[in-house]
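Section 5: illustrative case.
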């Protein structure tokens, strides 16, 4: 039992840093989202916050991935002069199950990056937390939500808004 626990711990601590497609199907997403205001037409302006274990982790890429995931699956909270926005993928418009597109969409340098409009590097915040020992990282990111919706419709992941009103 102890050997199995140590093996699992070593894999967790020293495992490879590059993500594989399977990492995102059952991943627990732990980010926080704050609406920072209205972006250009067709975009959301968000502050994304997440936690990483070391400063060596590619936290900008993690935050970009989190921002796109939030727009797709969680929706955007009200704030910064904007009303709350629903997730692009929901039970009413979903055609495919998440495994079919998350396997390839969220891998390192995957298609999700096409929908990151801009990262405000000047807004980057990295704070060392005492307990548990990790870093709280956040940045303001602009996401191209109209392009993302079009991609999801064209890829037959969600129904177009026209299809939702046709019975």
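Designed sequence:
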């Amino acid at each position: 039992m102890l050997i199995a626990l140590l093996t699992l711990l070593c894999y967790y601590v020293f495992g490879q840093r590059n993500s594989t497609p399977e990492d995102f199907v059952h991943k627990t997403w732990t980010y926080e989202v704050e609406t920072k205001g209205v972006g250009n037409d067709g975009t959301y302006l968000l502050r994304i916050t997440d936690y990483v274990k070391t400063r060596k982790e590619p936290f900008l890429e993690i935050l970009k991935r989190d921002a796109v995931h939030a727009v797709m699956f969680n929706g955007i909270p009200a704030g910064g002069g904007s009303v709350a926005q629903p997730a692009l993928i929901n039970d009413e418009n979903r055609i495919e199950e998440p495994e079919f597109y998350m396997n390839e969409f969220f891998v390192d340098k995957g298609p999700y990056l096409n929908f990151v409009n801009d990262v405000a590097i000047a807004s980057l915040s990295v704070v060392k937390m005492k307990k548990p020992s990790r870093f709280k990282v956040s940045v303001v990111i602009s996401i191209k939500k109209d392009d993302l919706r079009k991609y999801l419709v064209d890829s037959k992941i969600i129904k177009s808004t026209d299809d939702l009103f046709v019975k």
